[in-house]
Amino acid sequence: MSSIRVVLGLTASLDLDIEHTDVKTVFLHGDLDKKICMEQPKGFIIKGKEDYVCKLKKSLYGLKQAPRQWYKKFQSVMGEQGYRKTTFGHCVFVQKFSDDDFVILLLYVNDILIVGRNVSRIDKLKKQLSKSFSMKDLGLVKKILGIRIE
């Protein structure tokens, strides 16, 4: 929560643009790095093979690993775009283009705030992210985590 306050404070003090996006089905994006099997779902049990299990290829909601695998995937995609994780917070990514030109991305589970002076850089990042994840562009931020933004 302190990361959001700092980013919002920086946005207000430097008069930066701030956009909001939402990643759809966020925990389904994670890649599994271990073998995980599950019982056949009810209604999909094959007769004569009731004792078989399903080997998962992708993360599912309800897995203990799902949030971690989502974060690892997101961090990888951000690294490919040239963004680095800050030491201030694990969910704050930044890329500096010049002294006064930078973009900050703040991730909170499936909500993303993107902050910067250059709207075209923000739009470019949103387009790059939408190539990797199914996203909904919510435009200028109005509300996040119960905080109304004006």
UniProtKB/TrEMBL annotation:
InterPro entries: DNA/RNA_pol_sf, RVT_2. It comes from the Eukaryota. Residues 2-149 form the Reverse transcriptase Ty1/copia-type domain. This is Reverse transcriptase Ty1/copia-type domain-containing protein. It comes from Vitis vinifera. The lineage of its organism: Eukaryota, Viridiplantae, Streptophyta, Embryophyta, Tracheophyta.
